[in-house]
Amino acid sequence: KRSRRIFFGLSFFVITLLPTLTPLGITWIVAERYVYLGAIGIFIVVVLGIKRLSEIRYLKIAIRILFSLIIMALLTRTVIRNIDWKNEDNLWIATARTSPSSPNTHNNLGDVYSRRGEWEKAVYEFKKAIEIKPGYADAYHNLAHTYYLMGKLTEAIESYQNAIHFNPNLWQSYQNLAGIYFELKNINLAMEYFKKAIEVNPTNSQLRTNLGIAYLMLDRKLEAREEFEKSLQLDPNNKRTRQLLHLLP
Question: Which helix (H) or strand (E) holds 247?
């Protein structure tokens, strides 16, 4: 109350954070970027404090040394943080160390390991995300994809089914289930999942093409033609679909 500049600095910090503190869920629970602007207020207070202490004769040298050490420490931390931000993989690995209770972090870290081909680590991270947030459909979907890449089709099917159980609008899971059943030569079941994917995402040209191929595999040429034509209506530049359509009598 006795220092307008200190009051301004502290108030500025709080005011800039207010949009992130609303109960509307428009932000993450916590993220360092929310403090970027508000940190100016803290810097003001710290500088004023250092200035006052440095005016005390017997503390002047000690304060200068302490200030120099703080600057060096912050410079070092900045270099380390820049390494974290060098690429997406580094970022999520670093985030997992500082935010181990975030299901999103474990899900994204699982994606990092999956892209690297480190399947077991990826599976662990996706399962950890699900453990923290039961019913996490995206993590189930990613877990299923990793199982598929590992050749574990039974586990992949189960995880995809869990994904669509918790999020019936996750059309990618329907599509991938259809793909697995297509590989297993269960064309009828593959067709059912392609149809469900189309219900969720009716404007996807490739889904129509894939359903047409399934019909073609069952020698249901009229239905196949119909799906290929619908696919071309959605995407006239789909060369693969046009070639398939030309193969039909």
Answer: helix 239-247
